[in-house]
Amino acid sequence: MNYISELMLRVRESKQGQTMTEYVLIIAAIAVAGYIAYQGLEGGINTIISNVTATLKAA
Q1: How far apart are the C-alpha atoms of 50 and 20, rounded to whole Å?
Q2: Mean pLDDT of the residues in the chain
Q3: Alpha carbons 18 and 8: distance in angstroms, whole number
Q4: CA dist., res. 34 & res. 47, Å (int)
Q5: DSSP secondary structure string, 5-56?
Q6: Phi first, then psi: what are they for 14, rounded to 5°?
Q7: Does the predicted model carry a pTM greater than 0.85?
Q8: Cα–Cα distance for residue pair 25/1, rounded to 1 Å
C-alpha cells in the first residue's frame, strides 16, 4: 500500500502531466472555436462552392 501512496505522490508532483493537460485544453478550445467559425461561415462557403461548381460545369 505504501508503494501506491508514493506513486500517487509522484504523479501529483509531476509537471509533465500538468503540461499535457494544458495542451489538451488549448487544442479543445481551438477545435471549438474552429467549429463555431465554420458554423458562422457555412453559408458563405456553400455559396462559393456552388459558384465554382457552376463555373466548372459551364466551361
Answers
A1: 42
A2: 85
A3: 14
A4: 19
A5: HHHHHHHHH-HHHHHHHHHHHHHHHHHHHHHHHHHHHHHHHHHHHHHHHHHH
A6: -70, 130
A7: no
A8: 33
Residue carrying the nine cell digits 474552429: 34
Place of cell 457555412: 42
Residue 34 and residue 17: Cα distance in Å, rounded? Answer: 26
CA distance 1 to 7: 10
The C-alpha atoms of residue 28 and residue 14 are separated, in whole angstroms, by 22
pLDDT band for position 1 (cuts 50, 70, 90): low
C-alpha 30/C-alpha 17 separation (Å) is: 20
CA angle, 6 then 9 then 15, to 5°: 135
